[in-house]
Amino acid sequence: VEDMLTGAGGVYSKTDDWGVHVVRDGLLITGQNPASSAAAAEALVEALR
């Protein structure tokens, strides 16, 4: 997936396995894994403000 995304001009970022990693781009909010749930929820609350 990383190769396909970057090949199409996308930006790919990650952290260590099971690390907390959240990315927000406008209204799109993504978390890398379940460990990122709380941080993704915080980003969602901020987006709704």
What is the structure about, briefly put?
The chain is an alpha+beta fold. The protein has helices at residues 2-7, 37-48, and strands at residues 22-25, 28-31. A hairpin with a 2-residue loop joins strand 1 (22-25) and strand 2 (28-31).
Distance between the termini: 32 Å
Find the structural class using helix and strand composition. alpha+beta
Number of helical segments with 4 or more residues: 2
Percent helix among the residues?
Answer: 25-40%
User: Beta-sheet strand percentage?
Assistant: 15-25%
* Number of strand elements: 2
Shape: flat
Q: Rg, please? A: 12 Å
The largest sheet has its strands arranged as: 1-2
Written as H for each helix and E for each strand, in order along the chain, the element string is HEEH
Low-confidence stretches: none
**What does the main sheet amount to?**
2 strands, antiparallel
**Roughly what is the average pLDDT, rounded to an integer?**
96
Walk me through what this model shows.
The protein has a two-stranded antiparallel ribbon. The protein has helices at 2-7, 37-48, and strands spanning 22-25, 28-31. The model has no long low-confidence stretch (mean pLDDT 96). The protein has a domain at 16-49. The protein is flat, with a radius of gyration of 12 Å. By secondary structure, the protein is α+β, with helices and mostly antiparallel strands.
